[in-house]
Each structure stands twice: as C-alpha cells, then as structure tokens.
Amino acid sequence: MKCLILSGALLASGLTAVHAEEVPVRGVIRPASEAVLSTDIVARVLQLPQREGESFAKGDLLIKFDCAVQAAEIDAARSVLAAAREVFRGNEELASHNAVGKSEVRASRARMDRADADVKAAEARSRDCEIAAPFGGRVVETMIHPHETSRPGEPLMKILDDTNLEIELLVPSSWLVWLKTGTAFRFSVDETGKAYSASVSRMGGAVDPVSQTIKVFGIFKTKPQEILSGMSGAAAFNVPNG
Q1: Residue 219 near residue 185, CB atoms below 8 Å
Q2: pLDDT band at residue 51, thresholds of 50, 70 and 90?
Q3: Residues 171, 39 contacting (CB under 8 angstroms)
Q4: Residue 144, helix vs strand vs coil
C-alpha cells in the first residue's frame, strides 16, 4: 500500500494515482446545508437577534418584522368574512321558507368562500413576519439591518449548517475500483496546519468524461471545533498498487 494524494494539475493531464507518489488530492470543506433567506412582504425589520458569526438552533428567531399592516389586513378580511357568513346563513333561512331563490343562496355562499380564502391568504402572508431557522447553524452574512425595509425576494441573510460539514474532493475515476463509502483518509487543512481523520460518506453521481474524475464527499470522524466552511486542504488515501 502507498500513501498517495492526487492534485488537480495531474488529474487534468490524465496521470493516475498508481503512476505518481505524494501527489495531493485537493478538497474544500462545505456545509451540508446552506440557505439565503428572503421574504415576500414589504415590512420594516424590528429584530435581528443573531449577528454575523453567531450560532443558532433550529427554530430560533432570525428576523422579525413590524407587521402592523399585515395584522390590519387580517382583521379587515375577518370582518368581511363574518359579514358574508351572516348573509349566507340568512339566505339559507329564507330559502327554507321559499323567500329567496336558490341562485341567491349559491351567490352568497360563493361570496363567503371568497372571503374565507382572503382571510387564509392574509394569514399566510403574516407568517413571513417572523423568520425562524430551518436548521441549526451559523449566520454567515446579513444583508439588511434593523429599521430597514425589506423588499419581496431580496436576500436578507445567508446561513449555513456548520454542525454537519462535508469534505468535497475530486479524485480520478480509476479509483472507483477500490474507493468505497466508508474508506478512511486523512485530511490536512491549510488554515489550521493539522491533519484530521475522515471517511468517504458518499460518491458523486457521474464521472467527468474530460478529466476522468469524480466528486467524492467525506465527513470528519469527529468534527474539530476550529474547522469552518470554506477551508481547504489535501486528502491522503492509501492507494493499492496496480
């Protein structure tokens, strides 16, 4: 067995692991999940409890808006629904005494259903008044500040899940004859100057036909506290002779 690492330059030239020694396989540390948060409402930011670099748990409040306008819209929609419901019930009572036609009953029922839909739509919009964390992680960047007003679709905050970091590697496709899920390797991180134990967690879905490489993803056996997403380094595998 030889301890080998494979570099992008040699990958591009078609040189395989068995033809060279001490050639680095470069890799990048990435989060398992990341997201850029936005909203569909126009509202003023009241709170940003988490600052850039701070950690949060799933369900924690990340952004809170001043939604007085949205609350007023809900109240107005509920009032219209209550009135439409009374008209419908009155028409049903009148229809039982043949005092109003069936068409009027159907029309009042349709108006009530429309008012009910308006209430549900207003309530759905109000749910964007508070944005909770979809997963546990860390704030990477905030693009808006307290007292500023949001715009529909504009990015507000970038977050990532740093509790489940992955190592993304590019290895020769010829390694697929022996490289499997669970294969152990050592990953030396440039920024820390340390090497960490890791293993292959999953394989890419396709081989690049030009470079004859495939993406491989690994996980640390124990997540180091000093490791951050975006750090890079080199992976060392024990490559069989052949």
Answers
A1: no
A2: very high
A3: no
A4: coil
